[in-house]
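Input record (one chain):
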Amino acid sequence: MGVLTYTDEHTSAILPSRIFKASIIDSHNLMPKLLPDAIKSVEFIKGDGGAGSIKQINFAGGYVKHEIEEVNEKTFTYKYSLIEGMGISDKIQKVSYDIKFEGSPDNGTIAKMTTTIYTHGDFELKEEELNAGKEKVLGLYKVVEAYLLKNPDAYV
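The corresponding structure, as predicted from the sequence alone:
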């Protein structure tokens, strides 16, 4: 099994508590509303969103299942693994994410995400594939950020 780990960091003018509530705690309600053409529904097939829960995200062309390992509303941390669906194959066993939202000096947020990809055998991902995944995550982050900027009273 191969393991590839990388870390990304993004900044925002939005407070960490608001981004955490919108993009993590209430993502099952908010994301299908913000991206109805891409995300058809989000449902918990096990649990209620806490550690041990399994969340299924249904897209126009498939689905993914996330196993939630940690949700901490005090430290604004979230850990989960992509365990089934799009992105999982005979070459990729699972993908784990460790996300932390921290306050920035300008009263915004520094979002740090560590991604660990577990591959079968000696399979190696191409840089284009990694970049495509990073761009998708950044795109979701930017959609939530734009919504929160336009709706200053949401998720306060």
